[in-house]
Amino acid sequence: MKKWTKVGLLWGAIMFVIMSIIYPLIIGEKITTISILIGVVIWTIGGILFGYLQRKRIEKVN
């Protein structure tokens, strides 16, 4: 696995935990199976996109 993919998936995993688990607990919202599944899909795609865009940004600077 390429470094940018690992970075993106790590970022996505951190965002998933914060936005799908911690934030609903803080505001008192119910955590459902459907919200977890949707969160996994969204944050996986978002993480890969984040990693890819960071790679492109670094290539542009170099």
Structural summary, described in words:
With 62 residues, this protein is mainly alpha-helical. It has one domain. It is built from 2 helices and no strands. The chain has helices at 3-27, 33-61. It starts with a helix and ends with a helix.
The low-pLDDT segments are none
Number of separate helices: 2
CA-atom Rg in angstroms: 14 Å
Helix content: over 70%
Q: Strand tally, please?
A: 0
Shape: elongated
Name the features:
single chain; 62 residues; mainly alpha; 2 helices; elongated
Strand-helix topology:
Blueprint: H1 3-27, H2 33-61
Short description:
The protein is mostly helical. The chain is 87% helix and 0% strand. The chain has 2 helices and no strands.
